[in-house]
């Protein structure tokens, strides 16, 4: 029942010649379910023992900052937030017939930006593999950062933007 989002991502990887060391889907051996649970428990308030929020950003429990008024699309700022050498989790949400699925990948931020530019998404999350921070671009095109240091990095980008534009 799921759309061809994963096929679209695979096609982009092939067309752009992105090496597996820079971006790859998690396999069944990578235990994506354990990664998903660790993300929920690290970054979200969970009022129910088994139910999980569809939109993580509605339940963040750590310091969080968001921006929606930047000139460019939010994904163009990701390489200003994440070190280009760091390998991170990339999680993209797909909604079909009111059912939701998260697809899990790992990669470097420049390759992730290429994937974002060439494919579509409902919501996406970029997470430190040490679970130190999380970045979200939600379906409203709001760039959201939570966790250690990342909200401050996003505040700095907004401040630089405001100073540049005289706001």
Largest sheet: 7 strands, antiparallel
Question: What is the H/E order?
Answer: HEHEHEEHEEEH
Low-confidence stretches: none
Strand content: 25-35%
Mean pLDDT: 90
Radius of gyration: 16 Å
- The amount of helix comes to 25-40%
Structural class from helices and strands? alpha+beta
The end-to-end span amounts to 47 Å
The spatial strand order of the largest sheet comes to 1-4-3-5-6-7-2
The count of β-strands is: 7
Number of alpha- plus pi-helical segments: 5
Shape: globular
General description of the model:
This protein is an alpha+beta fold. The chain is built from 5 helices and 7 strands; from the N terminus they run H-E-H-E-H-E-E-H-E-E-E-H. It has a 7-stranded antiparallel β-sheet, sandwiched between helices. The protein is globular. It starts with a helix and ends with a helix.
């Amino acid at each position: 029942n799921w759309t061809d989002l994963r096929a679209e991502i695979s096609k982009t990887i092939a067309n752009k010649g992105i090496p597996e060391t820079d971006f790859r889907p998690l396999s069944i051996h990578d235990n994506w379910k354990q990664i998903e649970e660790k993300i929920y428990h690290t970054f979200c308030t969970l009022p129910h023992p088994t139910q999980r929020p569809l939109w993580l950003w509605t339940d963040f429990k750590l310091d969080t900052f968001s921006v929606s008024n930047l000139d460019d699309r939010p994904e163009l700022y990701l390489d200003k937030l994440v070190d280009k050498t760091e390998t991170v989790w990339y999680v993209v949400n797909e909604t079909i017939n009111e059912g939701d699925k998260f697809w899990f990948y790992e990669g470097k931020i420049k390759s992730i930006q290429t994937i974002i530019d060439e494919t579509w998404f409902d919501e996406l999350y970029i997470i430190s593999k040490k679970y130190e921070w999380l970045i979200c671009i939600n379906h409203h095109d709001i760039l959201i950062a939570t966790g250690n240091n990342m909200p401050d990095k996003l505040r700095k980008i907004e401040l630089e933007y405001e100073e540049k534009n005289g706001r």
